[in-house]
Amino acid sequence: MPANLRLLRALAAPPERVWRALTDPAALTGWFWPERLDPSAEADLGGRYRIASELTPSADGTELTLVHEGFADDDARDDHVKGWTDCLDRLPGWLASDRG
C-alpha cells in the first residue's frame, strides 16, 4: 500500500489569495521550490499532479489541507514531508507581502 502524507496549515489570507499562490505559475516562484516548476511542462513530461479545492475559509483566513499520495515507501514520503514543510513555512510570508 503506497504511503501518503497529509499536512494542515492555518493561513492568514482569504481562500482566493491562497488558491492563487497554489495555482499561478508566477506566484509559485515566490514561495515554492524548486523555481523550475512549470505545471504545464510537468504534465507534458508525463508527470501527474492534481490540485483540488481543499481550502476552507476560517475566521482568521484559510485552513489549507495538503494531501500528497502515491509514494513508493515511507522514506520517500518522509523526504516529501520535509520538502512540503519547507515550502509551506515560506507561504505565510509570501501571502503577507505585497506580491501575495
Which helices and strands occur, and which strands form pairs?
Elements: E1 3-11, H1 15-23, H2 25-31, H3 39-44, E2 55-58, E3 61-71, H4 74-96
Helix pairs in contact: 1-2
Sum this structure up briefly.
This protein is an alpha+beta fold. It has helices spanning 15-23, 25-31, 39-44, 74-96, and strands at 3-11, 55-58, 61-71. It has a single domain (3-96), classed as Alpha-D-Glucose-1,6-Bisphosphate, Chain A, domain 4.
Biggest sheet strand order reads 1-3-2
Distance between the termini: 38 Å
Do you know the CATH architecture? Answer: 2-Layer Sandwich
SS elements, strand count: 3
Instruction: Provide the structure class.
Output: alpha+beta
Approximate shape = globular
Q: How does this model look, in words?
A:
It contains 4 helices and 3 strands, in the order E-H-H-H-E-E-H. With 100 residues, the protein is an alpha+beta fold. A 3-stranded antiparallel beta sheet has the order 1-3-2, covered by helices on one side. Helix 1 packs across helix 2 (25-31).
